[in-house]
Amino acid sequence: MGPFRTLYLDMNSFFASVEQQLDPTIRGRPVAITAMENEKGCCVAASYEAKAFGIKTGTSVPDARRLCPGIVFLPSRHRLYVRYNLRVAAVLDRFAELERIRSVDEFQLGLSGEATTLPGARDLVTSLKAAVAAEVGACLRFSAGIGPNHLLAKIAGKLEKPDGCQWLGPENMPDRIAHLALDDLPGISRNMRARLEAAGITTMTRLCQLDPRHARAIWRSVEGERFVRSLQGEHIPLIDTQRGGYGNSKVLAPAFRRPQEAYMVSRWLIEKATARLRRDGRTAARFTLHLSPMGAASIAGAIKCAPSQDTLTFMRINRGLWRAAWPKIRHMKLAMIGVNLTEVEMLTNRSGDLLRPLRPGELSRAERASKAADFINARFGAGTISLGLNQPHPGFFERG
């Protein structure tokens, strides 16, 4: 049996568990983490005590209160959860190779030595559970998955929750997951499930037995072949993908739903996105604005431009797109807005411009000004200097 190469850890009800760890008075009680501090919000996480009442991600606050009258609602504090994520990561990394922090509540570890055997991997999981409980908090528990690759380990980690430990490999596949629906697997959306069913792949067993070359045709990508080979137990390492864009979107609070206020929020989103663009040494050549009016179809507009990392360049494009949309939205309220910078490339790959003049890979005067603003904000705090008026709208996920 084996060798096993990957251990996947999925923290159980992580956001709610962190809050329970910090506040002993709510331990053992149903807790829901909300995105907004009012009755119009929804639950973004729930403790297992709350899940027992049918509360899950996306349940509205009124419905959660109806299902569980004694539930405790707390606003999300994403930065706090990130700090706990790093504390857990530091513990894990002492025991095994922490290959990837896959999300705020999921970790991927590489196995070696005795831990590549099933008994050794299980002993490692026992040690990790004890160390996290002792050093981070007894409320912080996780489910563990053991597998020959990251995909099978991740699927195994979902099989026994909470606080479980399961394994998958050629020896127990596909029987061990035959009860799952196709779109229960990570990476298979409803659309991909429909595409598989159209190709005659309707069960988990058929999917696991699929010829990888056929999978490539169904997916219309090499990712289909990689996915099926991983299901069949091959060691298929993750590929680092090149970032395709920078963006921010925001579900608007009631105070910012009028187009006038929403426009100012969009300027703030652009400042955030372009700062990340500059941090990574990249430029973008396409800007897209997304507007979602309440009770009406979404509106999107995009404009191409010369590759740039200058905030004001994208501010001007944004203003033009808002003006174009204004006749439709001026009397409406907006539920959500989003900005995206795409067609991204490295600044060092940008060709020069004889008319400006600008050498290849050189920053323009406006880009240097934007970079100076980044330096000041990093030194003295976000928002110390901004390029024009904007309306910060951080929300609960960006709280500390």
UniProtKB/TrEMBL annotation:
Q: How does it assemble?
A: Monomer.
**Species name:** Pseudogemmobacter faecipullorum
User: Matching PROSITE patterns, A to Z?
Assistant: UMUC
Enzyme class, first EC level, given as a word: transferase
Q: Name one Pfam family in it.
A: IMS_C
Against SUPFAM superfamilies, the record matches this protein to:
DNA/RNA polymerases
> Which family is it part of?
Belongs to the DNA polymerase type-Y family.
Name of the protein in its database record: DNA-directed DNA polymerase
**Chain's role:** Poorly processive, error-prone DNA polymerase involved in untargeted mutagenesis. Copies undamaged DNA at stalled replication forks, which arise in vivo from mismatched or misaligned primer ends. These misaligned primers can be extended by PolIV. Exhibits no 3'-5' exonuclease (proofreading) activity. May be involved in translesional synthesis, in conjunction with the beta clamp from PolIII.
Domain UmuC: start-end pairs:
6-189
Kindly state which reaction or reactions the protein catalyses. Answer: DNA(n) + a 2'-deoxyribonucleoside 5'-triphosphate = DNA(n+1) + diphosphate
| EC number(s) reported in the record | 2.7.7.7
